[in-house]
Design brief:
Radius of gyration: 21 Å
Number of helices: 11
Structural class: alpha/beta
Largest sheet: 4 strands, parallel
Distance between the termini: 50 Å
Strand content: 5-15%
Helix content: 25-40%
Length: 280
């Protein structure tokens, strides 16, 4: 039995896969997509190809189980989706290299930090809600409007934010390295995270970095994402954060509630709050 393996990092084309099938006559194809929550090759074109040759397809994603995939792969005769939701904690540890996760914090200069790369719709909503509460200049908030500085208005209608670039001196704009930790990261108390998607629960390095650094955080991700962390065995920061929004189905309302949490925390002494949650 011959199995072909592809990594999403290799980005094989359909023509590449077709050529390999003709050359090797595999009975199974494995797509290793642990670094992603979606794979664009899982389409009807690929389905027609593997169905024609009676090939089983196995795909591994870095998410929790979700009907998101079954709804998009129904045209495959024989497909299996594997889930590895904690993959990114391993990948983060490996990519972080020489980062010191044993830093001891004493004081914080900023109540929160919110670092944004691609201007996904939910991140637009998040920065819009932070703007509504006049929080942008209180904490550290970046906005790269990536890719290619395309206007975010093509995907979201801002009510409060002007979609202007907000950069810090960390060279991220040229390196696009999420493991390039800016100085402000460690000087900020709460980490406000716009995860990679709100379509399903994906815990990327954006979430694992503050966990490894032992820093409090809030996530704008899929409905229930904080509960998934609880299911993994983590304790939430109930002492300082109101998580009642976590199961709210409307993304905009979750962004609103996160902003309200950030506002309330920013009005308190964050050094005292840190001492309160330090045991966790």
């Amino acid at each position: 039995m011959i199995t072909l393996y592809y990594s999403n990092l290799d980005s094989p084309s359909i023509d590449d896969i077709k050529r390999d099938i003709e050359l090797h006559t595999p009975s199974r194809i494995v797509f290793l997509c642990e670094t992603e929550w979606e794979y664009h090759h899982l389409n009807e074109t690929l389905a027609d190809l593997v169905n024609l040759h009676n090939i089983q397809v196995i795909v591994t994603f870095c998410t929790f189980p979700s009907k998101f995939y079954s709804e998009r792969t129904h045209y495959f005769n024989n497909i299996k989706i594997d889930y590895w939701p904690t993959y990114w904690v391993n990948w983060t540890m490996m990519c972080a290299g020489q980062l010191n996760f044993n830093i001891e914090y004493t004081t914080f200069d900023y109540p929160f930090i919110c670092l944004n790369n691609k201007n996904h719709t939910h991140r637009c909503a998040l920065i819009d809600e932070l703007t509504r509460n006049n929080l942008l200049d209180i904490g550290i908030v970046t906005w790269h409007r990536f890719p290619k500085e395309s206007p975010s208005s093509t995907r979201y209608h801002f009510k409060y934010y002007d979609d202007s670039l907000r950069l810090i001196d960390d060279n991220f704009n040229t390196l696009l390295d999420s493991f390039l930790i800016p100085e402000q990261y460690h000087k900020s108390f709460l980490h406000v995270i716009g995860e990679v998607t709100v379509e399903l629960v994906c815990l990327s390095e954006k979430t694992w970095l503050p966990i490894l650094y032992k820093k409090p955080f809030l996530i704008l991700g899929m409905q229930g994402i904080h509960q998934y962390l609880v299911d993994l065995g983590f304790e939430l920061y109930d002492e300082i954060i109101d998580y009642s929004f976590d199961n709210e189905p409307d993304m905009q309302q979750r962004a609103y509630a996160i902003s309200e949490n950030v506002k309330r925390i920013s009005e308190q002494n964050v050094n005292d709050l840190y001492q309160l949650i330090k045991p966790k």
